[in-house]
């Protein structure tokens, strides 16, 4: 009985090994050998994805269950992109009579599923040889096998295989689509972390009350997606459509085709040169940008993913010691470009979905003409407060995205305000400008003040006066405690000239450094 149980376990282990889906590269099957393919399940489906010459394919045969097929017959693809298939029954062998020089130059592959995948009507396979319109319905898993590209650009880093996906339509937010790298595993319905594109795009954001909330944004507009992989798959749970093409368009520099949009940049262990996407901007609205990033750089490459805007930049860096898998990062930035650079042309593997998305109307539009005394702005809308006397950023406000508060007399950043990374509050304050005790800022948050007579900077951190041209108090460090008043050299300013601005006295107050 015990023996029986043990052999059952062994048996089921064997079965699960046998069931692993496989990709076999045709270039590995050499003349003069009868190659037996192991771990192939009866009932599994076999597909061929190849646009190698028909003569070469004619010389390659597979045999299963006593039947022999020529790859030239199996490689034919229907106009809808659906390939022929052979169902495995009783093992699989591959033979070729091509000379090895021909074999080494082959680009195609054989794909073998599991029996369970064959039996699942929602599991389908496309081979992209030309242009195919693809309609997906319900919960489906769709494998896409690419064939060698027919176009040849001048790009040193053009991939061998790529699908050009256009006109992706996800009709409503109740439907989602994900692109995933690799082929679906034997347990393909389990949750994986190999998504490199998703629509809707799910991310965390902060609501008006400062709470972190999950948001899923459905992009109506998607850039053409160059899926530069040999094979990949789609999981979707409703009706979606797209056009797929065996095509590649040089994209070292591209320009987004809508203000709110998303796209991908993928590198499959091939050469990589800098890529830049010029994002469109909308100065009237706040902008959220972000990425879904997985990256496994080569040992000598440092790869940077950079959003650059007029109000700052957002940089993610990966190298061989700091890989990323499925990382979602977002920030608010008036981005103008998204750039990927690598310190080495052999960058390794990365998959990056980027997006740029319009948010709320900026307060700026309503208040470019300075608002009057006592104007109060809460976060989210407080990006530019052209405040005059008494302008305040209220306690508890969270200023993400590089807000600018060019307040004049009496401008205050009230106790308890939180400045996140990269926040800059410009307070070119005149008499009476204050940064109140207890303000905090994360890494790199700075308050730049151009104070005049009697300005006070009260902070909980040391204040370093790194003054500009004409200032006589450069390098002065005052270490105020609670409630202290560090006068930024009233005498210097007051006595040098009557024009405060012309002195360009900048004092940087690093309010506090909270590393993220
Ligand atoms: C390929 O193999 C066949 C049979 O094994 C042999 O007759 C033929 O000479 C080989 N051709 C080349 C080019 O190696
Ligand atoms: C599709 O997936 C999304 C994301 O997981 C989910 O919100 C939605 O309810 C699903 N739709 C259906 C029809 O199950
Ligand atoms: C981003 O902008 C800064 C400042 O203009 C510039 O120095 C940097 O090279 C830019 N980075 C990229 C990747 O474009
Ligand atoms: C990152 O990925 C590369 C490529 O897969 C791998 O060689 C390296 O060990 C990984 N690094 C870490 C720290 O996991």
Summarize the SSE layout with pairings.
Blueprint: H1 2-18, E1 22-25, E2 35-36, E3 45-49, H2 54-58, E4 60-64, E5 67-70, H3 71-74, E6 86-87, E7 93-96, H4 100-104, E8 109-112, H5 115-119, E9 123-128, E10 131-136, E11 139-146, E12 163-169, E13 177-181, E14 195-199, E15 201-206, E16 212-217, E17 225-227, E18 231-237, E19 240-246, E20 253-255, E21 261-271, E22 275-278, E23 285-297, E24 303-309, E25 312-318, E26 324-332, E27 335-342, E28 346-361, H6 363-367, E29 376-377, E30 392-393, E31 398-399, E32 412-413, E33 418-419, E34 424-427, E35 434-435, E36 440-441, E37 446-449, E38 456-457, E39 463-465, E40 476-478, E41 486-487, H7 490-496, E42 507-510
Parallel strand pairs: 9-11, 20-22, 29-30, 30-32, 31-33, 32-35, 33-36, 34-37
Antiparallel strand pairs: 1-8, 2-7, 3-6, 3-8, 4-5, 4-7, 10-19, 11-18, 12-17, 12-19, 13-14, 13-18, 15-16, 21-28, 22-27, 23-26, 23-28, 24-25, 24-27, 37-42, 38-41, 39-40
This protein binds 2-acetamido-2-deoxy-beta-D-glucopyranose (NAG) (4 copies).
One 2-acetamido-2-deoxy-beta-D-glucopyranose (NAG) binds next to loops.
InterPro entries: Glycoprotein
Signal peptide: 1-19
Keywords: Signal
């Amino acid at each position: 009985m015990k023996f029986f149980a043990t052999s059952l376990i062994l048996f089921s282990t064997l079965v699960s090994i046998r069931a692993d889906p496989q990709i076999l590269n045709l270039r590995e099957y050499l003349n003069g050998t009868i190659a037996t393919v192991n771990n192939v399940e009866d009932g599994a489906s076999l597909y061929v994805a190849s646009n190698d010459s028909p003569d070469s394919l004619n010389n390659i045969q597979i045999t299963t269950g006593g039947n022999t097929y020529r790859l030239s017959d199996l490689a034919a693809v229907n106009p809808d992109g659906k390939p022929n298939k052979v169902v495995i029954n009783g093992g699989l062998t591959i033979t070729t009579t091509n000379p090895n020089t021909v074999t080494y130059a082959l680009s195609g592959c054989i794909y073998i599923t599991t029996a369970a995948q064959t039996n699942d009507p929602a599991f389908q396979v496309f081979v992209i040889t030309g242009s195919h319109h693809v309609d997906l319905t319900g919960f489906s898993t769709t494998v896409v096998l690419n064939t060698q590209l027919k176009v040849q650009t001048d790009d040193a880093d053009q991939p061998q295989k790529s699908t050009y996906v256009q006109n992706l339509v996800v009709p409503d937010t109740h439907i989602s689509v994900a692109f995933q790298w690799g082929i679906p595993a034997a347990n393909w319905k389990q949750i994986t972390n190999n998504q490199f594109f998703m629509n809707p795009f799910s991310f965390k954001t902060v609501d008006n009350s400062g709470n972190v909330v999950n948001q899923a944004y459905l992009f109506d507009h998607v850039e053409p997606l160059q899926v530069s992989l040999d094979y990949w798959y789609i999981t979707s749970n409703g009706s979606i459509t797209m056009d797929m093409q065996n095509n590649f368009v040089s994209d070292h520099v591209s320009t987004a085709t809508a203000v709110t949009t998303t796209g991908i940049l993928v590198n499959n262990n091939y050469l990589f040169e800098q890529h830049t996407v010029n994002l469109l901007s909308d100065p009237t609205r706040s902008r959220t940008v972000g990425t879904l990033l997985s990256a496994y750089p080569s040992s000598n490459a440092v790869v940077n993913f950079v959003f650059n805007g007029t109000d700052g930049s957002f940089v993610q860096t990966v190298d061989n010691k700091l890989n990323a898998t499925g990382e979602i990062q977002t920030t608010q930035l008036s981005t103008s470009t998204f750039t990927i650079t690598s310190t080495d042309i052999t960058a390794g593997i990365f998959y990056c979905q980027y997006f740029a998305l319009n948010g709320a109307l900026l307060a700026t539009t309503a208040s470019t003409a300075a608002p009057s005394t006592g104007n109060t702005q809460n976060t989210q809308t407080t990006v530019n407060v052209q405040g005059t006397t008494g302008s305040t950023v209220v306690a508890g406000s969270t200023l993400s995205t590089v807000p600018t508060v060019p307040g004049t007399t009496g401008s205050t950043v009230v106790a308890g305000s939180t400045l996140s990374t990269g926040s800059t509050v410009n307070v070119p304050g005149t008499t009476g400008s204050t940064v109140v005790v207890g303000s905090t800022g994360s890494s790199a948050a700075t308050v730049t003040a151009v104070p005049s007579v009697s300005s006070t900077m009260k902070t909980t951190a040391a204040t370093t006066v790194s003054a500009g041209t004409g200032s006589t108090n450069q390098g002065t460090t005052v270490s105020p405690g609670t409630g202290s008043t560090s006068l930024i050299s009233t005498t210097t300013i007051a006595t040098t000239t009557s024009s405060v601005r012309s002195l360009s006295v900048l004092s940087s107050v690093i309010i506090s450094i909270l590393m993220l």
